[in-house]
């Protein structure tokens, strides 16, 4: 493979596959190598904790492209292929089998890995994490034989797997170190709603607790011991305590890293011929004026399109507002925007929180930083427009369901 013409993508997930697709759609006809550690062709992750885990979606629906797509588009998809090093000076990557692949431009879509729980018993059989397709298969199998499941961590993955376990008819206990689920992500006002959602569906939600040990017998997990001495029985333990960006290759190659691979708005790293996209990219966001790393599906879907165009020399920047969604029980939600826990001063609710049909808006200085629609649909565009406009809005009108969201945008100062 001639390094003066070849584009190499390390990481064969959604981001890598979409980058390869964009390169072809943009007219690049040179060699493309898509290198992935897993033996599965690129797939999307949301179904792993939602439809596929619950048996509602067939396995084939999780894949990004049909199997023949890669050959038909002359994409050299190499599965079960681990990249061990990057040599920026030589423009080569080293593979686990000792071979080397040259590149003109390199894109890193290496994603992230589940954080390990640093307690005794974390390696016992029956202790499960959810990141890969095989993980979802193992959890689905556990649901078929277990009657009691403990979920450690009340983030998105923890709550989605808890919901799937309850819908499978299992007894579920969720253990969370913070005083509310999703507290760091949503803040107290909205976190309370998700706490109520799960307790209403029969989950034993225990917040403000510390896990001391995962107990077991004959090498298999049978419960969780808490720091206060209490114990929760379990046939399976699911650990969802966050993910860590896979930036080790980049760091070893001398690229600038810190909460992922640091890239500019064009998704170019500190080396001009190396780019990053998806979970692993700590990217400068033009609208927000700072670097952020987004661990959600929409980012992995859309960011690689910008990276691919940048690799082709186009002057493009990634400025899409972050977006993610969840489905738990009878609750569907979309979140648009970006706000850190200490960066808002007001939450405005539009609709009814008691029936879980509402929109929540996070405001700072009267300006919408993010909006979350719960069981209210077709409002993502006006929410995004409110976020990107940067204009001040009247909180009373924002809360008034009789005032269309689009009307707020027509007014010069948002207040009429």
CATH superfamily of the largest domain: FAD/NAD(P)-binding domain
Identify the overall geometry: globular
Portion of residues in helices? Answer: 10-25%
Mean pLDDT: 95
* Secondary structure: number of strands: 26
**What fold name stands as the CATH topology of the largest domain?**
FAD/NAD(P)-binding domain
Terminus-to-terminus distance: 62 Å
- The total tally of domains equals 3
Using the coordinates above, name the CATH class of the largest domain. Answer: Alpha Beta
Classify the beta-strand content into a percent band: 25-35%
User: Radius of gyration from the CA trace?
Assistant: 23 Å
Number of helices: 12
Strand order of the largest sheet: 3-2-1-7-19
Structural class: alpha/beta
Largest sheet: 5 strands, parallel
CATH level-two architecture of the largest domain: 3-Layer(bba) Sandwich
Provide an overview of this structure:
This protein is α/β, with parallel strands linked by helices and 416 residues long. The protein has three domains: 7-113 and 244-311, FAD/NAD(P)-binding domain; 127-241, FAD/NAD(P)-binding domain; 330-410, FAD/NAD-linked reductase, C-terminal dimerisation domain (Enolase-like, domain 1, 2-Layer Sandwich), CATH 3.30.390. It is built from twelve helices and 26 strands. It has helices at 14-25, 46-49, 69-72, 133-145, 156-167, 183-186, 188-200, 248-252, 297-311, 380-389, 395-399, 405-410, and strands at residues 7-10, 32-35, 75-78, 83-87, 92-95, 100-102, 105-108, 112-114, 127-128, 148-152, 171-176, 204-207, 211-217, 220-226, 231-233, 236-239, 243-245, 261-263, 274-276, 281-285, 290-292, 323-328, 331-337, 346-352, 357-364, 367-374. The strands form seven sheets. The chain has a five-stranded parallel β-sheet with strand order 3-2-1-7-19. A five-stranded parallel β-sheet has the order 9-16-10-11-12, with helices on one face. β5 and β6 form a beta hairpin. α1 packs parallel to α9 (297-311).
């Amino acid at each position: 493979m001639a390094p003066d013409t070849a584009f190499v993508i390390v990481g064969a997930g959604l981001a890598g596959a979409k980058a390869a697709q964009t390169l072809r759609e943009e007219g690049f006809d040179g060699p493309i190598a898509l290198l992935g550690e897993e033996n599965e062709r690129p797939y999307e992750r949301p179904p792993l904790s939602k439809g596929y885990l619950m048996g509602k979606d067939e396995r084939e629906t999780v894949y990004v492209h049909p199997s023949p797509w890669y050959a038909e588009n002359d994409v050299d998809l190499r599965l079960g292929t681990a990249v061990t090093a990057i040599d920026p000076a030589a423009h080569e990557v080293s593979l686990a089998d000792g071979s080397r692949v040259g590149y003109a431009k390199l894109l890193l879509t290496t994603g992230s890995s589940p954080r390990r729980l640093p307690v005794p018993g974390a390696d016992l059989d029956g202790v499960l994490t959810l990141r890969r397709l095989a993980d979802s298969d193992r959890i689905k199998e556990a649901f078929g034989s277990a009657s009691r499941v403990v979920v450690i961590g009340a983030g998105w993955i923890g709550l989605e797997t808890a919901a799937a376990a309850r819908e499978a008819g299992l007894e579920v206990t969720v253990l969370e170190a913070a005083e509310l689920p999703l507290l760091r992500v949503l803040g107290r006002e909205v976190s309370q709603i998700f706490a109520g959602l799960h307790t209403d569906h029969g989950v034993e939600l225990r917040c403000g607790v510390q896990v001391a040990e995962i107990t077991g017998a004959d090498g298999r997990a049978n419960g969780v011991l808490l720091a206060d001495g209490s114990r929760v029985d379990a046939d399976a333990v699911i650990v969802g305590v966050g993910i860590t960006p896979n930036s080790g290759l980049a760091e070893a190659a001398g690229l600038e890293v810190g909460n992922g691979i640091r890239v500019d708005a064009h998704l170019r790293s500190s080396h001009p011929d190396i780019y990053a996209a998806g979970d692993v990219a700590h990217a400068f966001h033009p609208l927000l004026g700072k670097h952020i790393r987004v661990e959600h599906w929409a980012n992995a879907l859309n960011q690689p399109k910008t990276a691919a165009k940048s690799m082709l020399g186009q002057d493009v920047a990634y400025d899409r507002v972050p977006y993610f969604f969840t489905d738990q029980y009878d609750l569907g939600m979309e979140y648009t925007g970006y706000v850190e826990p200490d960066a808002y001063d007001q939450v405005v609710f539009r609709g009814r929180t008691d029936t879980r049909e509402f929109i929540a808006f996070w405001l700072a200085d009267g300006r919408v930083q993010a909006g979350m629609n719960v069981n209210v649909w077709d409002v993502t565009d006006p929410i995004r427009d409110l976020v990107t406009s940067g204009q001040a809005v009247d909180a009373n009108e924002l809360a008034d369901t009789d005032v269309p969201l689009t009307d707020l945008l027509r007014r010069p100062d948002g207040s009429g």
